[in-house]
């Protein structure tokens, strides 16, 4: 790492050297490594080949650094070439569409999480849950209470 916490992968990505990125990855470089500001290699790169390589190998397009900036936001600020920005925009759009195509709406996901949290809290406080019937009846009453509110 250099004095900013950047790895060889960060430097290779920033310079657009996809061959070095591939080599580093082959020998075990951590693609998720962040520098001291929370930037991954994807945050620093502005070359189409390098972006494609990093995303294909698992880096998320919507990952934020410590300042809340995505790779696309930083690319726009740095004024990287238009093809790289178009690719990042396209990948970000695909990510959003993919999330929205899920089988459950955001509301359903939040309600499920809330119900699971209620069940966990309820089960920790309820001494009747030491037998199987207690678990089921307790879950039913918690679920009914949640549905009625």
TrEMBL record:
UniProtKB keywords: ANK repeat, Repeat
Pfam short name (any one): Ank_2
Residue spans crossing the bilayer: none
Keyword Repeat: yes
Region (Disordered): 123-149
InterPro entries in UniProt: Ankyrin_rpt, Ankyrin_rpt-contain_sf
SMART domains listed in its UniProt record: ANK
Ranges of the ANK repeats in the UniProt entry: 4-36
Entry annotated with the keyword Methyltransferase: no
Protein name per UniProt: Ankyrin repeat domain-containing protein 46
């Amino acid at each position: 790492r250099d004095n900013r916490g950047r790895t060889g992968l960060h430097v290779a990505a920033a310079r657009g050297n996809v061959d070095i990125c591939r080599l580093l990855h082959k020998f075990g470089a951590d693609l998720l490594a962040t520098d001291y500001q929370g930037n991954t290699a994807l945050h620093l790169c502005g070359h189409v080949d390098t972006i494609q390589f990093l995303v294909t190998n698992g880096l998320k397009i919507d990952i934020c650094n410590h300042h809340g900036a995505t790779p696309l936001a930083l690319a726009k600020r740095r004024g990287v070439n238009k093809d790289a920005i178009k690719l990042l925009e396209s990948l970000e759009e695909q990510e959003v569409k993919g999330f929205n195509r899920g089988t459950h709406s955001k509301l359903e996901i939040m309600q499920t999480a809330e119900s699971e949290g209620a069940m966990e809290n309820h089960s920790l406080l309820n001494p009747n849950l030491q037998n199987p019937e207690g678990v089921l009846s307790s879950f039913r009453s918690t679920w009914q209470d949640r549905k009625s509110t």
